[in-house]
């Protein structure tokens, strides 16, 4: 059996074997941070005295992500004040999130990502809150900074059974009204919802001064449509089904998916929202790097 590399431990098929969300999140975060620590040993040095190389255990809020983007190395800003942040995790628990052809369903991936982000923030005493939703908010966990708050977040994510359709605007309006203090809003969803409703919701959050990050989770099947031969497709958020030869639909489906992704990306850009499309078959380290890069821009 080949020896697993450090990054392999972040792959969904490996993480899926860990049933406890807290252990899974610890595996993701510790593996990611270990990779960060290793990567800073290559490349050339930066030429300003207010920076030093990242060392394991340093406050991630002080990483200069602009330097990382240019040099692929991690440096700490030594003279920057970094107040604690407030982050609200918005996790889609509608029925379409049950789909998953690989090791994890979209909801499994979303819950793992949300727990990993919470674990990362709570270890630095940042405030973390959680809202799960489908047609509206289902479960709201208020912000706390204590490390044992992770147990409450995990409990809420674990008991959720995805159901119903997705209603973005009502959910995001609820969040805007109930979390008035500026912070970071992390939306984790497959975004199978009315686009106008989605854009109105993120416009509302952005307009109230929140930094908004959208993780758009899609299964590889949804991105590549690999089906062949007679197939029955069943709607997860509707009672209809379709029998067809998928090869006749593939080209049209892929074109429609491309248009859809382009529309979502442009809509997020219009309202200054950070957007990341995530293939749920890929390791979680890219998702965490995207979160941390966006998180460093938050000004309280």
Secondary structure layout plus pairing:
Elements: H1 12-15, H2 21-39, E1 51-53, H3 65-71, E2 75-77, E3 86-92, H4 106-122, E4 127-133, E5 137-144, H5 149-159, H6 168-178, E6 184-189, H7 195-207, E7 211-218, H8 220-224, E8 231-234, E9 241-244, H9 250-270, E10 274-279, H10 285-295
Parallel strand pairs: 3-4, 3-6, 6-7, 7-10
Antiparallel strand pairs: 1-2, 4-5, 8-9
Helix pairs in contact: 2-4, 4-5, 6-7
Descriptive terms for the model:
10 helices; disordered N terminus; Rossmann fold; 2 domains; two-stranded antiparallel ribbon; 10 strands; 300 residues; alpha/beta
CATH topology of the largest domain: Rossmann fold
Task: Identify the overall geometry.
Answer: globular
User: Helical region count?
Assistant: 10
Q: Helical amount among residues, as a percent range? A: 25-40%
The CATH superfamily label of the largest domain reads von Willebrand factor, type A domain
Element-by-element helix/strand order:
HHEHEEHEEHHEHEHEEHEH
First-to-last CA distance: 49 Å
What is the CATH domain class of the largest domain? Answer: Alpha Beta
């Amino acid at each position: 059996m080949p020896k697993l590399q450090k990054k392999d431990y972040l792959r969904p098929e490996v993480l899926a074997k860990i049933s406890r969300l807290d252990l899974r999140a610890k595996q993701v975060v510790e593996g990611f941070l270990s990779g960060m620590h290793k990567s800073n040993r290559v490349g050339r040095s930066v030429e300003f005295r207010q920076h030093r190389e990242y060392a394991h255990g340093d406050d991630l809020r002080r990483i200069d992500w602009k330097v990382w983007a240019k040099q692929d190395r991690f440096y700490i800003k030594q003279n920057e004040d970094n107040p604690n942040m407030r982050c609200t995790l918005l996790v889609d628990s509608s029925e379409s999130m049950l789909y998953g052809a690989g090791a994890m369903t979209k909801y499994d991936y979303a819950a793992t990502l949300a727990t990993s982000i919470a674990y990362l923030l709570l270890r630095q005493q940042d405030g973390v809150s959680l809202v799960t939703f489908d047609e509206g908010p289902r479960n709201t966990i208020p912000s706390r900074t204590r490390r044992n708050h992770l147990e409450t977040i995990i409990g809420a994510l674990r008991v959720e059974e995805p159901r119903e359709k997705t209603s973005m605007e009502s959910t995001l309006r609820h969040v805007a009204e109930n979390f008035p203090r500026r912070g970071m809003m992390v939306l984790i969803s497959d975004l199978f919802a009315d686009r106008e409703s989605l854009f109105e919701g993120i416009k509302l959050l952005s307009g109230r001064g929140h930094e908004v990050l959208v993780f758009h989770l899609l299964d590889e099947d949804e991105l590549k449509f690999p089906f062949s031969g007679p197939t029955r497709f069943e709607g997860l958020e509707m009672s209809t089904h379709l029998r067809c030869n998928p090869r006749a639909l593939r080209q049209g489906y892929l074109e429609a998916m491309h248009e859809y992704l382009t529309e979502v990306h442009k809509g997020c850009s219009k309202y200054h929202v950070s957007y990341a499309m995530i293939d749920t078959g890929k390791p979680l380290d890219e998702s965490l790097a995207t979160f941390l890069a966006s998180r460093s821009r938050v000004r309280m």
